[in-house]
Specification:
Layout lengths: L1 H12 L2 H21 L3 H13 L4 H9 L11 E8 L5 E8 L8 E8 L28 E4 L11 H15 L3 E12 L1 H10 L9 E4 L27 E6 L7 H13 L4 E6 L9 H14 L8 E6 L2 H4 L1 E2 L2 E6 L13 E2 L9 E3 L9 E4 L4 H5 L6 E5 L2 E2 L3 H9 L6 E8 L2 E8 L7 E2 L8 E8 L2 E7 L1 E8 L10 E5 L2 E6 L5 H11 L8 E6 L4
Parallel strand pairs: 3-4, 3-5, 5-6, 6-7, 7-8, 21-23
Antiparallel strand pairs: 1-2, 2-4, 9-20, 10-11, 11-22, 12-19, 13-14, 15-16, 15-17, 17-18, 20-21, 22-25, 23-24
Helix pairs in contact: 2-3, 3-12, 4-12
Length: 527
C-alpha cells in the first residue's frame, strides 16, 4: 500500500503542470542572470543557458520587448565614473541624472563632447581632467560628458567604442528611451561628432555639432584614424551651428562643406550665427530650435534605407540591420559618387586655427596642411602681430583682416616666432576648380540598401560578404524574402526564427526596439 501511495505522489509531482512550473522557473532564473549582466560580454555569456531552457521564440521575444527589470533604484545627481578602454586604460566621464527621477521613468540621453582635446593625458597618480563643460540643456534628459585628450582623441576608434560602452552601461542602470539617444559636441567635440557618426550610426537618433568643422578630419597632422565617408552621414538628421566671426571654424569655411553634405542627401539644418565667435553666446537664440529638432527626430531603429561604407568591417561594418563582413570586388558593382570635393567659389577657409579666448595678439594653434595659412608661412606657436601692416590685437581682428583680403594680391604678416619677429609674405591664388578634400587612402566597401515589404535591393562596391539582421517587426517571416544585389537575385526563401540569434543580438544591443529573429549571410558572386 505504501509503495502505491509513493507512485501516486510521483505522478502528482512530475505531471504536466509541475513540469510546466519547473520549466517556467528555469526560464525565470536564466532571464534573471541575463538581465543582471553588467556588460555586453556578461550578457552574451548568459545566452546559452537561456537557449537551453527550450523557451519558444514568441515567449523570448515578448520578454525582451518588455524591457529589463531594474533591481534597485538607480543613482541620481551628478556621477563621476570611469570607462575602461580596450587597451585597459581608464577614461573618466560624468553623468547627470535628474534628482527627481521617478521609478520606471524612461528618459532621453544626450552625449556632449567637449573641445580642446590637445591637452596631455593625466599622468599616473593624477586626478582625471575632464573637458570644460557647457551644459546646453534642451529638456528633461540624462546628460553624459565623456572626456578626450591627446592619448584618446574624439577622432579615434577607441573613442567610438568608449561611447558605445558608456551607453551600454547606462542602459543596464536606467530606463533609456532607446530611440532618443543623441550626440552633440562643441568645437573639437563637434568635429568628433562628424567622425563618430561615420563610424557608428546605429545607436544615435541625431547629430548636433556646434562650432565644428569636418574638414579638420582631412588634415593628416591631427591623427585621424581611417578615411572619412560623407555618405554615412546621410543615415541621420543633423543640426549645425557655426559663428560668422569664429577664428577657428568660421561660417565662410563651413558653407562649402554644408553644400557638399546636401549634395550627399544628408538631412540637415544649418543655423549660422553671423556675429558670433568661437563661443556659445548664441545659445539663447538657438535653444528652442535645438530642442524642437531633438523632439522632431526620434531614431528609426529599423530604417528602410541604409547607406554605409567601411574600411574596417571587423569593427565598424554595421549600420542598424546591415553588416558588411568582408571586402573585395563583386560582379556587377555599382558606381557611386564619393562626394569628396567642395566648390571653389565664394569664401574659403584660410586654414588657420588660433586660440579663440586668448587676450591680445592671437597665437596659432594649428595650420592645415596645404592651406593658405601654410602658403603664407605660418607655423604652430606663432603669435600674429600684424596683417597688412596693421597691428592685430585679437582673434576677431585677425578674422576681419582676412575677410578683407583679395586673392591674387600680396598678403603680408608679421609674427613672433620663438622670441623673434619674422616677416611673411605670399600671393594667394583662387583655386582652379573644385577642391578634392575627402581623399581615399584605404580599400573600403560600400552598400546602399533599400527595403520594400519582403524585398531588399542592394547596390554594392568593394563588398564580397555581408549579413542582414532581420526583425519580425520589419519582415513577414511567414512569407518569402527576396534579396537582389547589383541587379542579380542572391536569395529567395522563407526565414527561420532563431532563439539564439534573437538573444545574441539582444545581448549585444541591449535595445528592446531593435530585436532580430534571423540572420541572412550573403556571399556576393565574384567578378
Amino acid at each position: 500500500m505504501k509503495a502505491a501511495w509513493v507512485g501516486v505522489a510521483l505522478l502528482l509531482t512530475t505531471g504536466p503542470g509541475a513540469q510546466a512550473q519547473s520549466r517556467a522557473a528555469d526560464i525565470d532564473r536564466a532571464f534573471e542572470r541575463f538581465w543582471k549582466a553588467g556588460s555586453r560580454q556578461a550578457a552574451l555569456k548568459a545566452v546559452p543557458a537561456l537557449v537551453q531552457t527550450g523557451a519558444d521564440f514568441a515567449e523570448l521575444y515578448a520578454r525582451l520587448r518588455a524591457d529589463r527589470p531594474l533591481a534597485e533604484r538607480p543613482r541620481t545627481g551628478e556621477l563621476s565614473l570611469t570607462a575602461m578602454l580596450a587597451d585597459g586604460r581608464g577614461r573618466p566621464y560624468s553623468v547627470v541624472v535628474p534628482d527627481d527621477l521617478a521609478p520606471n521613468e524612461e528618459l532621453p540621453v544626450r552625449f556632449q563632447l567637449h573641445g580642446g582635446v590637445n591637452r596631455p593625458a593625466p599622468q599616473e597618480g593624477e586626478a582625471p581632467r575632464p573637458g570644460r563643460r557647457r551644459n546646453l540643456e534642451a529638456g528633461r534628459e540624462i546628460l553624459v560628458f565623456p572626456s578626450a585628450d591627446r592619448e584618446a582623441l574624439w577622432w579615434s576608434e577607441a573613442q567610438v567604442e568608449n561611447l558605445a560602452a558608456i551607453l551600454d552601461r547606462l542602459k543596464r542602470a536606467y530606463r533609456i528611451d532607446n530611440n532618443r539617444v543623441y550626440l552633440t559636441g562643441i568645437s573639437d567635440g563637434a568635429t568628433g561628432v562628424y567622425y563618430i557618426a561615420q563610424r557608428d550610426t546605429t545607436p544615435w537618433a541625431s547629430f548636433l555639432p556646434l562650432n565644428g568643422q569636418p574638414l579638420v578630419l582631412t588634415n593628416p597632422d591631427v591623427g585621424v584614424e581611417g578615411d572619412f565617408y560623407v555618405r554615412n552621414l546621410a543615415n541621420k538628421p543633423w543640426f549645425l551651428v557655426n559663428g560668422g566671426r569664429d577664428p577657428l571654424y568660421p561660417v565662410a569655411g563651413v558653407v562649402p562643406v554644408v553644400e557638399l553634405l546636401r549634395r550627399a542627401s544628408v538631412p540637415l539644418e544649418f543655423h549660422p550665427q553671423p556675429d558670433a565667435g568661437h563661443d556659445v553666446s548664441w545659445w539663447p537664440r538657438v535653444h528652442d530650435d535645438f530642442a524642437a529638432f531633438v523632439r522632431k527626430h526620434p531614431r528609426a531603429p529599423l530604417p528602410d534605407h541604409i547607406a554605409w561604407e567601411s574600411d574596417r568591417p571587423e569593427r565598424f561594418g554595421r549600420a542598424h540591420w546591415l553588416v558588411i563582413e568582408a571586402l573585395g570586388a563583386a560582379a556587377g558593382e555599382a558606381v557611386f559618387d564619393d562626394f569628396d570635393t567642395v566648390a571653389s567659389r565664394g569664401p574659403r577657409d584660410f586654414g588657420l586655427r588660433v586660440e579663440p579666448q586668448r587676450p591680445g595678439a592671437p597665437r596659432v594653434l594649428d595650420v592645415i596642411r596645404g592651406s593658405d595659412a601654410q602658403a603664407l608661412g605660418l607655423e604652430r606657436g606663432d603669435v600674429v602681430l600684424e596683417l597688412h601692416g596693421r597691428p592685430v590685437a585679437s582673434a576677431d581682428e585677425l578674422w576681419q583682416a582676412l575677410q578683407g583680403y583679395e586673392l591674387g594680391t600680396p598678403l603680408r604678416a608679421a609674427v613672433e616666432r620663438k622670441g623673434r619677429r619674422v616677416a611673411l609674405e605670399a600671393v594667394l591664388q583662387p583655386a582652379a576648380g573644385p577642391e578634392r578634400v575627402f581623399k581615399r587612402t584605404r580599400a573600403s566597401g560600400r552598400v546602399e540598401l533599400q527595403r520594400s515589404g519582403n524585398q531588399v535591393e542592394l547596390r554594392t562596391r568593394g563588398v564580397r560578404r555581408l549579413k542582414l539582421l532581420l526583425s519580425p517587426d520589419q519582415f513577414d517571416f511567414d512569407q518569402p524574402l527576396r534579396v537582389v544585389a547589383n541587379g542579380r537575385p542572391v536569395f529567395e526563401g522563407r526565414l527561420q526564427r532563431s532563439a539564439s540569434t534573437l538573444l545574441t543580438w539582444a545581448a549585444r544591443d541591449n535595445d528592446r526596439t531593435m530585436l532580430f529573429g534571423a540572420e541572412l549571410k550573403l556571399d556576393l558572386p565574384a567578378r
